[in-house]
Amino acid sequence: MTIREDLERREHKIFSPFAAFSDESRGRDRYEKPCDIRTIYQRDRDRIIHCKSFRRLKHKTQVFLSPYGDHYRTRLTHTLEVAQIARTIARALRLNEDLTEAIALGHDLGHTPFGHAGERALTAVLGRPFRHNEQSVRVVENLEKNGQGLNLSWEVRDGMLNHKTSLMPATLEGRVVRLSDKIAYISHDIDDGIRAELMTEDSIPAECSDVLGHNTRDRIDNLIHDVIENSMDKADVSLSGEYEKALILLRQFMFDNLYTNPKAKKEEVKAARIVQILFEHYMAKTEELPEEFLQRIDKGDMQDTTVCDYIAGMTDNFAVMKFKEIYIPHSWNIL
Question: Three-state SS for 299?
Answer without folding.
Answer: coil
